[in-house]
């Protein structure tokens, strides 16, 4: 219905107090400005200006048009500034494994907000398998996920490994220590969700050479796993960082023999470079910095 040039002409008429003065300010013929306004009024089927012998003034519809147009001009100017001055803005679709939400994520997002206040984040907490599929299908821009679940053609930057331990509530389980595989396999175990790498590793570790499968319960929520273990449902395979951040859970690490130790979790920041190179590099930078130990740690 109207363009930014129409808005500029109307603003000039208002600012200069009339068509003749606006023509001098814009360097256009007065007849061209009058014709432009008349055509705009015809298209919109409203009167923008009231004309009398003393000059012109905005109608009620014209004032509303000007007010709304100011917002459009401000948006246009903001977009141009962001694009021309390399300002990062918009929405970033970020997938995160839950382990990272309690450790790397808060510091990473705080740093990104400080550097790029125009960015907005939509955060999805998913399994690494789900995030790998969403990255491949352009459902996510960046993901912090297990390295072995990353799809092909991805840009991947490793993060420091996350150590796992065996934990239990001393109120509910008196486990002889150092515990071997036979002792652990006889207890109910809460671990990561089924089909994830940590879950498979626990099952393989405890099931080797056994006729009966061990009872490994999967939980997609670390908070749920912590609660179950603290309430005596079973023992759990939980990252050390998570237990340290939840001291109120009252969990204690179970010392185990070397053969029962769990492998570290290997996470990475992943993105498809063809689609998200710019924001991918910024999130990677912030995540790597956030993963470094704090001076007081």
Quick structural gist:
The protein has 297 residues and is α/β, with parallel strands linked by helices. It is 45% helix and 18% strand.
Question: Could you explain how this protein is built, in words?
Answer:
The chain has 297 residues and is an alpha/beta fold. It has 3 domains: 4-84, Orthogonal Bundle (Arc Repressor Mutant, subunit A), CATH 1.10.10; 90-161 and 266-290, D-Maltodextrin-Binding Protein, domain 2 (3-Layer(aba) Sandwich); 164-260, D-Maltodextrin-Binding Protein, domain 2 (3-Layer(aba) Sandwich), CATH 3.40.190.10. The chain is built from 12 helices and 12 strands. The strands form 3 sheets. Strands 4-3-5-12-6 form a 5-stranded mixed beta sheet, with helices on both faces. A 5-stranded mixed beta sheet has the order 9-8-10-7-11, with helices on both faces. Helix 1 packs across helix 4 (60-84) and helix 6 (104-115) crosses helix 12 (273-290). The model has no long low-confidence stretch (mean pLDDT 87). It comes from Paracoccus tibetensis. GO terms for molecular function: DNA binding; DNA-binding transcription factor activity. Belongs to the LysR transcriptional regulatory family.
